[in-house]
Amino acid sequence: MLIAVASIVIAAYLGIGIMIYFLQPRIIYYPIAEFAAQPADAGLEFEDVYIPITSAAKINAWYFPSTSAQKTILFCHGNGGNISYYLEKAAMYNHMGLNCLIFDYQGYGKSAGKPSEQGTYDDAAAAYKWLVNVKKIDPSAIIVHGWSLGGPIAANLAASQKVAGLILESTITSAPDMACKIYPIFPARLLCRYKYDTAKYLANITCPVLVIHSPEDEIIPFSMGQKLFNLVKQPKQFLQITGSHNDGA
Question: Which of 21, 68, 102, 146 could lock 151 by a disulfide, CB 3.0 to 4.6 Å apart?
Answer without folding.
Answer: 146
